[in-house]
């Protein structure tokens, strides 16, 4: 579900967007998902690696509703991060066309 949170502008770790756990009023557009079990949460934590931890945030939806959520934020070395922008539609299109990964 499309939503926004507020924070500092995203950084990039390679091609991946990175959220920093800092106060800010920058609107960050994204997509939410609902985690239905502890096992799912643990699988997601393992996928995100030790470079991230979670913190609570308010999530604002397009229909005006809001909820409490969690966001993964960067705890790795900031020297690995660069300034840049991330567009999910562009990323998915490049991935599908093989511009990011070979599908072997």
From TrEMBL:
<dbReference type="Pfam" id="PF06094">
    <property type="entry name" value="GGACT"/>
</dbReference>
<dbReference type="InterPro" id="IPR036568">
    <property type="entry name" value="GGCT-like_sf"/>
</dbReference>
<protein>
    <recommendedName>
        <fullName>Gamma-glutamylcyclotransferase AIG2-like domain-containing protein</fullName>
    </recommendedName>
</protein>
<feature type="domain" description="Gamma-glutamylcyclotransferase AIG2-like">
    <location>
        <begin position="3"/>
        <end position="76"/>
    </location>
</feature>
<dbReference type="InterPro" id="IPR009288">
    <property type="entry name" value="AIG2-like_dom"/>
</dbReference>
């Amino acid at each position: 579900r499309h939503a926004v949170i507020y924070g500092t502008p995203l950084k990039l770790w390679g091609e991946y967007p990175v959220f920093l756990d800092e106060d800010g009023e920058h609107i960050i557009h994204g997509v939410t998902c609902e985690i239905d079990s502890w096992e799912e949460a643990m699988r997601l934590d393992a996928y995100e690696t030790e470079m991230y931890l979670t913190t609570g945030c308010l999530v604002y939806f397009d229909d005006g509703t809001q909820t409490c959520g969690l966001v993964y934020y960067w705890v790795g070395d900031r020297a690995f991060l660069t300034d840049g922008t991330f567009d999910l539609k562009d990323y998915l299109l490049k991935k599908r066309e093989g511009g990011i990964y070979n599908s072997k």
